[in-house]
Design goal:
heterodimer, A: about 325 residues, MetI-like fold, B: about 180 residues, alpha+beta, four-stranded antiparallel sheet, three-stranded antiparallel sheet
Protein backbone atom coordinates (compact mmCIF):
# COMPACT_ATOMS: atom_id res chain seq x y z
CA UNK A 1 0.00 0.00 0.00
CA UNK A 2 2.87 2.34 0.77
CA UNK A 3 4.02 1.90 -2.83
CA UNK A 4 0.60 2.94 -4.06
CA UNK A 5 0.54 6.02 -1.79
CA UNK A 6 4.05 7.00 -2.95
CA UNK A 7 3.09 6.55 -6.62
CA UNK A 8 -0.04 8.67 -6.18
CA UNK A 9 1.86 11.38 -4.30
CA UNK A 10 4.50 11.61 -7.02
CA UNK A 11 1.71 12.28 -9.50
CA UNK A 12 0.02 14.76 -7.17
CA UNK A 13 3.02 17.05 -6.66
CA UNK A 14 3.64 17.97 -10.33
CA UNK A 15 -0.13 18.23 -10.83
CA UNK A 16 -0.34 20.90 -8.14
CA UNK A 17 2.65 22.76 -9.56
CA UNK A 18 1.01 22.66 -13.01
CA UNK A 19 -2.30 23.89 -11.64
CA UNK A 20 -0.62 26.75 -9.77
CA UNK A 21 1.16 27.79 -12.98
CA UNK A 22 -2.03 27.66 -15.05
CA UNK A 23 -3.98 29.53 -12.36
CA UNK A 24 -1.34 32.25 -12.17
CA UNK A 25 -1.07 32.63 -15.95
CA UNK A 26 -4.85 32.76 -16.46
CA UNK A 27 -5.23 35.46 -13.82
CA UNK A 28 -2.46 37.47 -15.47
CA UNK A 29 -3.75 36.97 -19.02
CA UNK A 30 -6.23 39.89 -19.26
CA UNK A 31 -4.47 43.19 -20.01
CA UNK A 32 -3.70 45.39 -16.99
CA UNK A 33 -4.37 44.59 -13.35
CA UNK A 34 -6.47 45.79 -10.46
CA UNK A 35 -4.05 48.62 -9.68
CA UNK A 36 -3.88 49.91 -13.26
CA UNK A 37 -7.69 50.19 -13.15
CA UNK A 38 -7.39 52.17 -9.93
CA UNK A 39 -4.73 54.42 -11.49
CA UNK A 40 -7.00 55.07 -14.46
CA UNK A 41 -9.85 56.02 -12.10
CA UNK A 42 -7.47 58.26 -10.14
CA UNK A 43 -6.30 60.05 -13.28
CA UNK A 44 -9.88 60.47 -14.43
CA UNK A 45 -10.63 62.26 -11.16
CA UNK A 46 -7.56 64.44 -11.70
CA UNK A 47 -6.01 63.49 -8.35
CA UNK A 48 -2.25 63.28 -8.15
CA UNK A 49 -1.71 62.30 -4.49
CA UNK A 50 -3.09 58.79 -4.87
CA UNK A 51 -0.66 58.10 -7.73
CA UNK A 52 2.24 57.93 -5.26
CA UNK A 53 0.24 55.61 -2.98
CA UNK A 54 -0.57 53.32 -5.88
CA UNK A 55 3.07 53.14 -6.97
CA UNK A 56 4.01 52.25 -3.40
CA UNK A 57 1.23 49.69 -3.40
CA UNK A 58 2.55 48.18 -6.65
CA UNK A 59 6.07 47.99 -5.25
CA UNK A 60 4.92 46.50 -1.94
CA UNK A 61 2.97 43.74 -3.63
CA UNK A 62 5.77 43.00 -6.07
CA UNK A 63 3.63 43.85 -9.09
CA UNK A 64 6.60 45.69 -10.67
CA UNK A 65 8.60 42.42 -10.63
CA UNK A 66 8.86 40.13 -13.66
CA UNK A 67 6.06 37.56 -13.92
CA UNK A 68 8.20 34.51 -13.02
CA UNK A 69 9.32 36.24 -9.83
CA UNK A 70 5.77 37.21 -8.94
CA UNK A 71 4.83 33.53 -9.33
CA UNK A 72 7.66 32.34 -7.08
CA UNK A 73 6.75 34.90 -4.40
CA UNK A 74 3.07 33.93 -4.58
CA UNK A 75 3.76 30.20 -4.27
CA UNK A 76 6.27 30.54 -1.42
CA UNK A 77 3.83 32.84 0.41
CA UNK A 78 1.11 30.21 -0.02
CA UNK A 79 3.44 27.60 1.51
CA UNK A 80 3.97 29.96 4.44
CA UNK A 81 0.19 30.16 4.85
CA UNK A 82 0.04 33.76 3.60
CA UNK A 83 -2.63 34.05 0.91
CA UNK A 84 -1.89 37.71 0.29
CA UNK A 85 -4.05 40.82 0.52
CA UNK A 86 -7.22 41.44 -1.44
CA UNK A 87 -6.87 44.69 -3.43
CA UNK A 88 -10.59 45.37 -3.49
CA UNK A 89 -11.33 44.75 0.17
CA UNK A 90 -7.90 45.93 1.34
CA UNK A 91 -7.84 43.07 3.83
CA UNK A 92 -5.95 39.76 4.04
CA UNK A 93 -7.58 37.11 1.86
CA UNK A 94 -8.29 34.91 4.90
CA UNK A 95 -10.39 37.71 6.42
CA UNK A 96 -12.31 38.23 3.17
CA UNK A 97 -13.15 34.56 2.67
CA UNK A 98 -13.53 33.64 6.36
CA UNK A 99 -17.06 34.89 7.14
CA UNK A 100 -18.62 33.40 4.02
CA UNK A 101 -16.66 30.15 4.22
CA UNK A 102 -18.62 28.77 7.17
CA UNK A 103 -21.97 29.55 5.54
CA UNK A 104 -20.70 27.90 2.34
CA UNK A 105 -19.66 24.79 4.22
CA UNK A 106 -23.09 24.63 5.92
CA UNK A 107 -24.96 25.01 2.60
CA UNK A 108 -22.73 22.56 0.74
CA UNK A 109 -22.68 20.02 3.56
CA UNK A 110 -26.47 20.10 3.84
CA UNK A 111 -26.74 19.76 0.05
CA UNK A 112 -24.49 16.70 -0.01
CA UNK A 113 -26.46 15.08 2.85
CA UNK A 114 -29.76 15.93 1.11
CA UNK A 115 -28.51 14.46 -2.17
CA UNK A 116 -27.44 11.17 -0.61
CA UNK A 117 -30.42 10.79 1.74
CA UNK A 118 -32.92 11.32 -1.08
CA UNK A 119 -31.07 9.58 -3.91
CA UNK A 120 -29.98 6.45 -2.11
CA UNK A 121 -33.35 4.86 -1.24
CA UNK A 122 -34.85 5.97 -4.56
CA UNK A 123 -31.93 4.51 -6.54
CA UNK A 124 -32.15 1.20 -4.67
CA UNK A 125 -35.95 1.09 -5.12
CA UNK A 126 -35.67 1.82 -8.86
CA UNK A 127 -33.10 -0.92 -9.35
CA UNK A 128 -34.95 -3.55 -7.31
CA UNK A 129 -38.31 -2.68 -8.93
CA UNK A 130 -37.07 -2.25 -12.48
CA UNK A 131 -39.78 -1.25 -15.03
CA UNK A 132 -42.46 -0.95 -12.34
CA UNK A 133 -44.74 2.11 -12.25
CA UNK A 134 -42.74 3.45 -9.35
CA UNK A 135 -39.49 3.04 -11.30
CA UNK A 136 -40.95 4.76 -14.38
CA UNK A 137 -42.32 7.65 -12.28
CA UNK A 138 -39.07 8.16 -10.39
CA UNK A 139 -37.07 7.89 -13.62
CA UNK A 140 -39.21 10.64 -15.15
CA UNK A 141 -38.68 12.87 -12.10
CA UNK A 142 -34.97 12.06 -12.27
CA UNK A 143 -34.72 13.12 -15.91
CA UNK A 144 -36.63 16.34 -15.15
CA UNK A 145 -34.21 17.06 -12.32
CA UNK A 146 -31.22 16.41 -14.57
CA UNK A 147 -32.59 18.57 -17.35
CA UNK A 148 -33.44 21.60 -15.19
CA UNK A 149 -30.56 24.03 -14.64
CA UNK A 150 -30.14 24.95 -10.97
CA UNK A 151 -30.25 28.70 -11.56
CA UNK A 152 -33.52 28.33 -13.51
CA UNK A 153 -35.06 26.38 -10.65
CA UNK A 154 -33.89 29.15 -8.30
CA UNK A 155 -35.56 31.81 -10.45
CA UNK A 156 -38.80 29.79 -10.65
CA UNK A 157 -38.85 29.32 -6.86
CA UNK A 158 -38.17 33.03 -6.27
CA UNK A 159 -41.03 33.92 -8.61
CA UNK A 160 -43.43 31.36 -7.14
CA UNK A 161 -42.68 32.39 -3.54
CA UNK A 162 -43.21 36.04 -4.43
CA UNK A 163 -46.45 35.53 -6.38
CA UNK A 164 -48.10 32.88 -4.20
CA UNK A 165 -46.78 33.67 -0.71
CA UNK A 166 -45.81 37.32 -1.14
CA UNK A 167 -42.38 36.69 0.38
CA UNK A 168 -38.77 36.76 -0.76
CA UNK A 169 -36.86 33.55 -0.25
CA UNK A 170 -33.45 34.96 -1.17
CA UNK A 171 -30.57 35.16 1.31
CA UNK A 172 -29.51 32.72 3.96
CA UNK A 173 -30.89 34.47 7.04
CA UNK A 174 -33.31 37.21 8.10
CA UNK A 175 -31.95 40.72 7.30
CA UNK A 176 -31.49 41.66 10.98
CA UNK A 177 -28.93 38.87 11.44
CA UNK A 178 -26.73 39.64 8.43
CA UNK A 179 -24.08 41.64 10.32
CA UNK A 180 -24.89 40.26 13.76
CA UNK A 181 -22.61 37.90 15.67
CA UNK A 182 -23.47 34.21 15.72
CA UNK A 183 -26.28 33.38 18.16
CA UNK A 184 -28.90 30.67 18.54
CA UNK A 185 -31.50 32.91 16.89
CA UNK A 186 -29.19 33.54 13.94
CA UNK A 187 -28.49 29.80 13.62
CA UNK A 188 -32.24 29.04 13.63
CA UNK A 189 -32.75 31.73 11.00
CA UNK A 190 -30.08 30.11 8.81
CA UNK A 191 -31.75 26.71 9.22
CA UNK A 192 -35.13 28.21 8.23
CA UNK A 193 -33.66 29.62 5.01
CA UNK A 194 -31.36 26.70 4.29
CA UNK A 195 -33.81 24.30 2.66
CA UNK A 196 -34.35 26.45 -0.42
CA UNK A 197 -30.71 26.61 -1.63
CA UNK A 198 -30.27 22.98 -0.56
CA UNK A 199 -33.19 21.85 -2.74
CA UNK A 200 -32.17 24.13 -5.62
CA UNK A 201 -28.48 23.14 -5.64
CA UNK A 202 -29.12 19.49 -4.76
CA UNK A 203 -31.82 18.63 -7.31
CA UNK A 204 -29.64 17.87 -10.32
CA UNK A 205 -27.05 16.07 -8.19
CA UNK A 206 -29.80 13.94 -6.64
CA UNK A 207 -31.22 13.05 -10.05
CA UNK A 208 -27.77 12.12 -11.37
CA UNK A 209 -27.02 10.01 -8.32
CA UNK A 210 -30.34 8.13 -8.66
CA UNK A 211 -29.57 7.28 -12.30
CA UNK A 212 -26.05 6.09 -11.59
CA UNK A 213 -26.95 4.08 -8.49
CA UNK A 214 -29.79 2.41 -10.39
CA UNK A 215 -27.53 1.52 -13.33
CA UNK A 216 -24.66 0.24 -11.14
CA UNK A 217 -26.96 -1.81 -8.94
CA UNK A 218 -28.76 -3.33 -11.93
CA UNK A 219 -25.37 -4.42 -13.30
CA UNK A 220 -24.46 -6.12 -10.03
CA UNK A 221 -27.89 -7.69 -9.46
CA UNK A 222 -27.63 -9.53 -12.78
CA UNK A 223 -24.36 -11.22 -11.85
CA UNK A 224 -24.20 -14.92 -11.26
CA UNK A 225 -23.24 -14.75 -7.60
CA UNK A 226 -26.43 -12.84 -6.75
CA UNK A 227 -28.57 -15.40 -8.61
CA UNK A 228 -26.76 -18.21 -6.79
CA UNK A 229 -27.16 -16.49 -3.43
CA UNK A 230 -30.91 -16.14 -4.05
CA UNK A 231 -31.19 -19.72 -5.27
CA UNK A 232 -29.53 -20.90 -2.07
CA UNK A 233 -32.22 -19.13 -0.07
CA UNK A 234 -30.43 -16.01 1.19
CA UNK A 235 -33.04 -13.43 2.28
CA UNK A 236 -33.53 -10.77 -0.47
CA UNK A 237 -32.47 -7.90 1.80
CA UNK A 238 -29.19 -9.60 2.72
CA UNK A 239 -28.60 -10.72 -0.88
CA UNK A 240 -28.88 -7.04 -1.84
CA UNK A 241 -26.91 -5.35 0.91
CA UNK A 242 -24.08 -7.80 1.51
CA UNK A 243 -22.34 -7.61 -1.88
CA UNK A 244 -24.23 -5.95 -4.79
CA UNK A 245 -24.93 -2.68 -2.99
CA UNK A 246 -21.36 -2.52 -1.73
CA UNK A 247 -19.99 -3.03 -5.23
CA UNK A 248 -22.44 -0.48 -6.68
CA UNK A 249 -21.02 2.14 -4.33
CA UNK A 250 -17.51 2.10 -5.82
CA UNK A 251 -18.25 4.82 -8.41
CA UNK A 252 -19.47 7.06 -5.60
CA UNK A 253 -16.26 6.59 -3.67
CA UNK A 254 -14.47 7.61 -6.85
CA UNK A 255 -16.56 10.80 -6.78
CA UNK A 256 -15.26 12.03 -3.43
CA UNK A 257 -12.70 13.99 -5.42
CA UNK A 258 -15.50 16.20 -6.72
CA UNK A 259 -17.20 16.59 -3.36
CA UNK A 260 -14.39 18.35 -1.49
CA UNK A 261 -14.08 21.40 -3.80
CA UNK A 262 -17.89 21.59 -3.96
CA UNK A 263 -17.92 22.16 -0.20
CA UNK A 264 -16.17 25.52 -0.52
CA UNK A 265 -17.00 26.58 -4.08
CA UNK A 266 -20.46 27.83 -3.10
CA UNK A 267 -22.43 27.14 -6.31
CA UNK A 268 -21.59 30.50 -7.89
CA UNK A 269 -24.56 31.19 -10.18
CA UNK A 270 -27.23 29.94 -7.76
CA UNK A 271 -25.63 31.99 -4.99
CA UNK A 272 -25.82 35.12 -7.14
CA UNK A 273 -29.45 34.42 -8.09
CA UNK A 274 -30.53 33.67 -4.51
CA UNK A 275 -28.29 36.38 -2.96
CA UNK A 276 -26.52 33.82 -0.80
CA UNK A 277 -23.59 35.17 1.25
CA UNK A 278 -21.34 32.26 0.23
CA UNK A 279 -17.86 32.22 -1.28
CA UNK A 280 -19.15 31.82 -4.84
CA UNK A 281 -20.04 35.48 -5.44
CA UNK A 282 -16.77 36.55 -3.74
CA UNK A 283 -14.78 34.47 -6.23
CA UNK A 284 -16.82 35.77 -9.16
CA UNK A 285 -16.23 39.39 -8.11
CA UNK A 286 -12.50 38.71 -7.60
CA UNK A 287 -12.20 37.30 -11.12
CA UNK A 288 -14.11 40.21 -12.62
CA UNK A 289 -11.93 42.81 -10.91
CA UNK A 290 -8.64 40.92 -11.34
CA UNK A 291 -8.16 40.84 -7.60
CA UNK A 292 -5.29 38.43 -8.26
CA UNK A 293 -4.36 37.34 -4.74
CA UNK A 294 -7.97 36.70 -3.75
CA UNK A 295 -8.89 34.90 -6.97
CA UNK A 296 -5.58 33.03 -7.22
CA UNK A 297 -5.58 31.81 -3.63
CA UNK A 298 -9.22 30.76 -3.87
CA UNK A 299 -8.68 28.86 -7.12
CA UNK A 300 -5.59 27.22 -5.65
CA UNK A 301 -7.63 26.09 -2.62
CA UNK A 302 -10.25 24.59 -4.95
CA UNK A 303 -7.53 22.82 -6.97
CA UNK A 304 -5.84 21.53 -3.82
CA UNK A 305 -9.13 20.17 -2.50
CA UNK A 306 -9.83 18.51 -5.86
CA UNK A 307 -6.43 16.83 -5.96
CA UNK A 308 -6.64 15.77 -2.30
CA UNK A 309 -10.19 14.50 -2.86
CA UNK A 310 -9.09 12.40 -5.84
CA UNK A 311 -6.18 11.08 -3.76
CA UNK A 312 -8.53 10.10 -0.92
CA UNK A 313 -10.99 8.40 -3.28
CA UNK A 314 -8.18 6.53 -5.06
CA UNK A 315 -6.73 5.33 -1.75
CA UNK A 316 -10.17 4.23 -0.54
CA UNK A 317 -10.79 2.36 -3.79
CA UNK A 318 -7.36 0.72 -3.58
CA UNK A 319 -8.16 -0.45 -0.05
CA UNK A 320 -11.76 -1.50 -0.68
CA UNK A 321 -11.55 -2.98 -4.15
CA UNK A 322 -8.04 -3.60 -5.51
CA UNK A 323 -9.10 -5.58 -8.56
CA UNK A 324 -8.40 -5.38 -12.26
CA UNK A 325 -11.23 -3.42 -13.77
CA UNK A 326 -11.20 -4.93 -17.25
CA UNK A 327 -9.56 -7.60 -19.31
CA UNK A 328 -5.92 -7.84 -18.36
CA UNK A 329 -6.01 -11.45 -19.45
CA UNK A 330 -2.46 -12.64 -19.64
CA UNK A 331 -3.62 -15.98 -21.00
CA UNK A 332 -1.90 -17.80 -18.23
CA UNK A 333 -3.98 -20.92 -18.42
CA UNK B 1 14.21 -34.04 -6.66
CA UNK B 2 13.09 -30.60 -5.48
CA UNK B 3 12.95 -27.91 -8.16
CA UNK B 4 14.03 -24.49 -6.90
CA UNK B 5 14.01 -21.13 -8.64
CA UNK B 6 15.34 -17.76 -7.47
CA UNK B 7 13.54 -14.52 -8.32
CA UNK B 8 14.71 -10.91 -8.08
CA UNK B 9 12.96 -7.58 -8.62
CA UNK B 10 13.26 -5.87 -11.99
CA UNK B 11 16.17 -3.37 -11.89
CA UNK B 12 14.36 -0.81 -14.08
CA UNK B 13 11.31 -0.74 -11.78
CA UNK B 14 13.54 -0.46 -8.72
CA UNK B 15 15.45 2.43 -10.31
CA UNK B 16 12.14 4.23 -10.98
CA UNK B 17 11.10 3.68 -7.37
CA UNK B 18 14.43 5.05 -6.09
CA UNK B 19 13.99 8.17 -8.23
CA UNK B 20 10.42 8.54 -6.96
CA UNK B 21 11.49 8.18 -3.32
CA UNK B 22 14.36 10.66 -3.61
CA UNK B 23 12.43 13.27 -5.62
CA UNK B 24 9.36 12.93 -3.38
CA UNK B 25 11.40 13.29 -0.20
CA UNK B 26 13.25 16.28 -1.66
CA UNK B 27 10.04 18.05 -2.72
CA UNK B 28 8.43 17.46 0.69
CA UNK B 29 11.37 18.02 2.99
CA UNK B 30 13.04 20.79 0.93
CA UNK B 31 10.48 23.51 1.76
CA UNK B 32 10.50 22.33 5.39
CA UNK B 33 14.22 22.99 5.62
CA UNK B 34 14.46 26.09 3.43
CA UNK B 35 11.24 28.02 4.15
CA UNK B 36 9.24 29.04 7.18
CA UNK B 37 6.13 27.13 6.20
CA UNK B 38 2.80 27.37 8.03
CA UNK B 39 2.27 24.81 10.81
CA UNK B 40 -0.49 22.88 9.00
CA UNK B 41 1.55 22.79 5.80
CA UNK B 42 4.62 21.67 7.77
CA UNK B 43 2.71 18.69 9.17
CA UNK B 44 1.42 17.69 5.75
CA UNK B 45 4.88 17.94 4.19
CA UNK B 46 6.44 16.02 7.08
CA UNK B 47 3.92 13.17 6.76
CA UNK B 48 4.39 13.00 2.99
CA UNK B 49 8.16 13.13 3.45
CA UNK B 50 7.93 10.22 5.90
CA UNK B 51 5.89 8.25 3.34
CA UNK B 52 8.60 8.77 0.72
CA UNK B 53 11.33 7.84 3.20
CA UNK B 54 9.47 4.62 4.07
CA UNK B 55 8.97 3.95 0.37
CA UNK B 56 12.70 4.40 -0.27
CA UNK B 57 13.53 2.01 2.56
CA UNK B 58 11.06 -0.54 1.23
CA UNK B 59 12.60 -0.22 -2.25
CA UNK B 60 16.04 -0.85 -0.77
CA UNK B 61 14.77 -3.96 1.03
CA UNK B 62 13.22 -5.23 -2.24
CA UNK B 63 16.50 -4.52 -4.04
CA UNK B 64 18.39 -6.73 -1.60
CA UNK B 65 15.73 -9.45 -1.42
CA UNK B 66 15.63 -12.65 -3.48
CA UNK B 67 12.56 -14.89 -3.46
CA UNK B 68 13.19 -18.62 -3.56
CA UNK B 69 10.37 -20.76 -4.89
CA UNK B 70 10.45 -24.50 -4.37
CA UNK B 71 8.09 -27.46 -4.16
CA UNK B 72 8.30 -27.19 -0.39
CA UNK B 73 7.43 -23.52 -0.04
CA UNK B 74 8.40 -19.91 -0.66
CA UNK B 75 11.25 -18.09 1.04
CA UNK B 76 12.34 -14.44 1.06
CA UNK B 77 16.12 -14.16 1.39
CA UNK B 78 17.51 -10.77 2.34
CA UNK B 79 17.28 -8.09 5.06
CA UNK B 80 13.81 -9.28 6.15
CA UNK B 81 14.00 -13.08 5.80
CA UNK B 82 10.84 -15.13 6.10
CA UNK B 83 9.51 -18.41 4.79
CA UNK B 84 6.18 -20.19 4.35
CA UNK B 85 5.77 -23.88 3.60
CA UNK B 86 3.02 -24.62 1.07
CA UNK B 87 1.41 -27.09 3.47
CA UNK B 88 1.21 -24.28 6.05
CA UNK B 89 -0.21 -21.64 3.71
CA UNK B 90 -3.16 -20.03 5.51
CA UNK B 91 -4.14 -17.12 3.27
CA UNK B 92 -3.67 -15.82 -0.26
CA UNK B 93 -4.61 -12.37 -1.50
CA UNK B 94 -3.94 -10.89 -4.91
CA UNK B 95 -4.48 -7.14 -5.25
CA UNK B 96 -4.18 -4.92 -8.31
CA UNK B 97 -3.10 -1.28 -8.20
CA UNK B 98 -3.17 1.33 -10.90
CA UNK B 99 -2.42 5.04 -10.80
CA UNK B 100 -4.57 5.64 -13.87
CA UNK B 101 -8.32 5.84 -13.99
CA UNK B 102 -8.96 3.26 -16.66
CA UNK B 103 -11.06 3.88 -19.68
CA UNK B 104 -13.62 1.19 -20.37
CA UNK B 105 -11.93 0.12 -23.57
CA UNK B 106 -8.47 -0.02 -22.04
CA UNK B 107 -7.28 -3.60 -22.25
CA UNK B 108 -3.54 -3.22 -21.81
CA UNK B 109 -2.12 -6.49 -20.59
CA UNK B 110 1.60 -5.94 -20.04
CA UNK B 111 1.90 -4.73 -16.48
CA UNK B 112 5.62 -4.15 -16.78
CA UNK B 113 5.07 -1.74 -19.66
CA UNK B 114 2.42 0.20 -17.76
CA UNK B 115 2.16 1.84 -14.37
CA UNK B 116 -0.03 -0.94 -13.00
CA UNK B 117 1.11 -3.63 -10.67
CA UNK B 118 -0.15 -6.55 -8.63
CA UNK B 119 0.70 -7.59 -5.12
CA UNK B 120 0.51 -11.17 -3.91
CA UNK B 121 0.22 -11.60 -0.16
CA UNK B 122 0.73 -15.06 1.26
CA UNK B 123 -0.08 -15.78 4.88
CA UNK B 124 1.67 -18.40 6.95
CA UNK B 125 1.38 -19.55 10.55
CA UNK B 126 3.63 -16.78 11.85
CA UNK B 127 4.59 -14.32 9.10
CA UNK B 128 3.32 -13.23 5.72
CA UNK B 129 5.22 -12.66 2.47
CA UNK B 130 4.35 -9.94 -0.04
CA UNK B 131 5.54 -10.18 -3.62
CA UNK B 132 4.96 -7.56 -6.32
CA UNK B 133 4.47 -8.21 -10.02
CA UNK B 134 7.73 -6.39 -10.84
CA UNK B 135 9.60 -9.47 -9.65
CA UNK B 136 10.87 -11.83 -12.33
CA UNK B 137 8.64 -14.89 -12.75
CA UNK B 138 5.69 -13.39 -10.89
CA UNK B 139 3.22 -15.54 -12.82
CA UNK B 140 5.09 -18.71 -11.77
CA UNK B 141 4.89 -17.62 -8.13
CA UNK B 142 1.15 -16.91 -8.40
CA UNK B 143 0.68 -20.24 -10.17
CA UNK B 144 2.43 -22.17 -7.40
CA UNK B 145 0.66 -20.25 -4.63
CA UNK B 146 -2.75 -20.72 -6.28
CA UNK B 147 -2.16 -24.47 -6.57
CA UNK B 148 -1.18 -24.62 -2.91
CA UNK B 149 -4.25 -22.58 -1.94
CA UNK B 150 -6.48 -24.97 -3.92
CA UNK B 151 -4.78 -28.00 -2.35
CA UNK B 152 -5.49 -26.57 1.09
CA UNK B 153 -9.06 -25.51 0.17
CA UNK B 154 -8.39 -21.93 1.18
CA UNK B 155 -11.29 -19.48 0.79
CA UNK B 156 -10.21 -16.70 -1.58
CA UNK B 157 -12.01 -13.39 -1.47
CA UNK B 158 -13.87 -12.17 -4.56
CA UNK B 159 -11.22 -9.54 -5.35
CA UNK B 160 -8.48 -12.16 -5.41
CA UNK B 161 -10.61 -14.43 -7.58
CA UNK B 162 -11.37 -11.62 -10.02
CA UNK B 163 -7.66 -10.79 -10.31
CA UNK B 164 -6.77 -14.46 -10.75
CA UNK B 165 -9.42 -14.70 -13.49
CA UNK B 166 -7.89 -11.67 -15.18
CA UNK B 167 -4.50 -13.37 -15.12
CA UNK B 168 -5.99 -16.40 -16.82
CA UNK B 169 -6.59 -18.69 -13.84
CA UNK B 170 -10.13 -20.06 -13.70
CA UNK B 171 -10.78 -18.94 -10.13
CA UNK B 172 -14.49 -18.22 -10.72
CA UNK B 173 -15.00 -14.62 -9.65
CA UNK B 174 -18.71 -14.90 -10.47
CA UNK B 175 -19.20 -17.65 -7.92
CA UNK B 176 -20.67 -16.63 -4.56
CA UNK B 177 -17.98 -14.81 -2.51
CA UNK B 178 -16.16 -16.96 0.03
CA UNK B 179 -17.91 -19.98 -1.39
CA UNK B 180 -21.15 -19.31 0.48
CA UNK B 181 -24.24 -17.21 -0.21
Amino acid sequence: MIAYIAHRLTIMAPTLVGISLVTFVIIQLPPGDFLSTMIAECEARGESSCMDDLETFRRDFGLDEPLWRQYVIWVTDLLRGDMGVSFEYNKPVEEVIGPSLWLTVIVSGATIVFTWVVAFPIGVYSATHQYSWGDHGLTLIGFLGLATPNFLLALVMLFAANVWFGTSIGGLMDPEYIDADWSWAKFVSVLEHLWIPVVVIGTSGTAGLIRRLRANLLDELQKQYVVTARAKGLPPGRALVKYPLRMALNPFIADIGNLLPQVISGAVIVSVVLSLPTTGPVLLRALQTQDMFLAGSFLMCLALLTVVGVLISDLLLAVLDPRIRLGAGAGHR
Amino acid sequence: MTETSLHAYDAKTLAGDYVRAVCGAAVCLGPLLLLEVAAAMAWILAVFGAVFAAFGLRTLVRNLTRVELSDAGIRAIGPAPRAIRWDELSAMKLAFYTTRRRRKDDSRTDMRASRDWMELKLGGPRRSIRVESSIGGFEAIVDRAYNAAMDRNLALNDITRANLDALGFAAGADAPPDGRP
